[in-house]
Design goal:
about 475 residues; nucleotide-binding; BirA Bifunctional Protein, domain 2; EC 6.1.1.22; protein biosynthesis; OB fold (Dihydrolipoamide Acetyltransferase, E2P); binds 4-amino-1,4-dioxobutan-2-aminium adenosine-5'-monophosphate; binds magnesium ion; nucleic acid binding
Length: about 475
């Protein structure tokens, strides 16, 4: 008995070999003599149609109990399909029902459910077309990330998740504490006391692997991380998560120019890869989620990104004649509405904004001679805004120490980081790409909570 997944079966020719097809029933159409089942196993958007000749089989009892969501193993042969949309179907002669899904209680019925509703049943939403497609695209993109860096001889580095330093100096940290669940420390009033820290020292979940990546870039030249990061910002938006995955390359002997080129090549590579590798899922997003997305991503994959300084960007915004709800002037952090204007109205494509004011960026960025700006870069894309943030790093010991103090951080906790400047310092640069922002951008999904299997965000940490 051959056992191939549905995506492969759909590409196969009719044959006498018995196929065994495990999957979930998406739909059932029953008539007097035949029953049509659409089976899906997650390998592709399209399901396999199984046809049961009721007079030739003894399956009526089983069919009566089959409803959307039931799990089955169907056996039969592949025959040419007279219907349009598929070239083969399964002429099914045996059917095992593994698990029923009673229609009265199964939450996923054969109609379109809102994404808000599906978020409340995150453990089941993977069974819908949209979430199947999102997760396949997400999977492919993560492989493409590794491929891009491996081809360029970057070393994949695993950076720690528990850390003592605030890598962004933004103060949005989750603290890690030890807790003996059988004998938890209690306050006098009997409530749980969570103020215990990590074996005597304060510890947090990492906001970025960058500082650790810098340590290895200044030893091994080119490294990248790809792991979970955590932000305790109270941002209840469609582009912020409390737990998200970030890809962070870091390069020694590299300046902001080299950093921008890498970022641009990276985004273009990922877009080309996904358009080539997941055409069926991308066509689905184009049809059902964001019309025109395939064509627009293809254009982006083939064009140069517009580059401008922050000062130029502010100038463009001030002269735009738009009334923004947050009015643009030099010194502000760019808001989503500003990023939207720059990418959608002004450049009509991605923009790399560089040289932001020192005061709104992290302590580790290299300072420009003007004393006001730093060698920062943000890559902005239409429909989303910031997808990448990065910079050339400050490689000088004294300016870095000063910047740490100016930002109100303790130099003691950054001594190891300062060592990288004390010993064999080099110009170096890197960036971070938010993986869920990328998946949102590529799929056209509107809410970042819908491109990660189980979102952790303000008000959602269930499942
Ligand atoms: O701009 P950010 O904060 O930069 C850093 O963390 C640097 N240490 C990166 C580096 O240079 N190595 O974050 C980088 C990217 C953002 O551009 C955005 O795509 C994503 O991470 N990001 C988030 N994604 C989802 N939810 C959040 N709360 C995010 N915060 C940042
Ligand atoms: Mg940023």
């Amino acid at each position: 008995i051959a056992r191939r997944r549905i995506a492969q079966l759909l590409q196969s020719s009719p044959s006498e070999t018995i196929q065994e097809v495990p999957g979930w029933v998406r739909t059932k159409r029953d008539s007097k003599n035949v029953c049509f089942l659409e089976l899906n196993d997650g390998s592709s958007l399209q399901g396999l149609q199984a046809i049961i000749d009721k007079s030739a089989t003894d399956l009526q009892n089983t069919l009566d109990r089959l409803q959307t969501g039931a799990s089955v193993i169907a056996r039969g042969t592949l025959v040419a399909s007279p219907g349009k949309g598929q070239s083969v179907e399964l002429s099914c002669t045996e059917l095992d029902l593994l698990g029923e899904a009673p229609a009265e209680s199964y939450p996923l019925q054969k109609k379109r459910h809102s994404f808000e509703f599906l978020r409340e049943i995150a453990h089941l939403r993977g069974r819908t077309n949209t979430f199947g497609a999102v997760m396949r695209v997400r999977n492919r993109l993560s492989i493409a990330v590794h491929q891009f860096f491996q081809e360029r001889e970057f070393l994949y580095l695993n950076t720690p998740i528990i850390t003592a330093s605030d890598a962004e100096g933004a103060g949005a940290l989750f603290q890690v504490t030890t807790l003996d669940v059988n004998n938890p420390p209690r306050r006098e009033d009997g409530s749980l006391d969570y103020s215990e820290d990590f074996f005597g020292k304060p510890a947090y979940l990492t906001v970025s692997g960058q500082l650790n990546a810098e340590a290895y870039a200044t030893a091994l030249d080119r490294v990248y991380t790809f792991g979970p990061t955590f932000r305790a910002e109270n941002s209840n938006t469609t582009r912020h998560l409390a737990e998200f995955w970030m890809i962070e390359p870091e390069m020694a002997f590299c300046d902001l120019e080299g950093n921008m080129s890498l970022a641009e090549d990276f985004v273009r590579f990922l877009l080309k890869d996904i358009l080539d590798r997941c055409p069926e899922d991308m066509a689905f997003f184009d049809k059902r989620i964001e019309p025109g997305i395939v064509e627009s991503l293809r254009t982006v994959a083939e064009s140069d990104f517009r580059r401008m300084t922050y000062t130029e960007a502010i100038d463009v915004l001030e002269k735009s004649g738009r009334s923004f709800s947050f009015s643009p002037h030099w010194g502000i952090d760019l808001q989503t509405e500003h990023e939207k204007f720059l990418t959608e109205d002004y450049a009509q494509g991605p923009v790399i904004v560089t040289d932001y004011p020192r005061e709104i960026k992290a302590f580790y960025m290299k300072q420009n001679p003007d004393g006001k700006t730093v060698r920062a870069m943000d890559v902005l894309v239409p429909r989303l805004g910031e997808i990448i943030g990065g910079s050339q790093r400050e490689e000088g010991l004294e300016p870095l120490e000063k910047a740490i103090r100016r930002c109100g951080l303790e130099t003691e906790s950054y001594q190891w980081y300062l060592d990288l400047r004390r010993f064999g310092t080099v110009p170096h640069a890197g960036f971070g790409l938010g993986f869920e922002r990328l998946v949102r951008y590529v799929t056209g999904m509107q809410n970042i909570r819908d491109v990660i299997p189980f979102p952790r965000a303000v008000g959602s940490a269930e499942f």
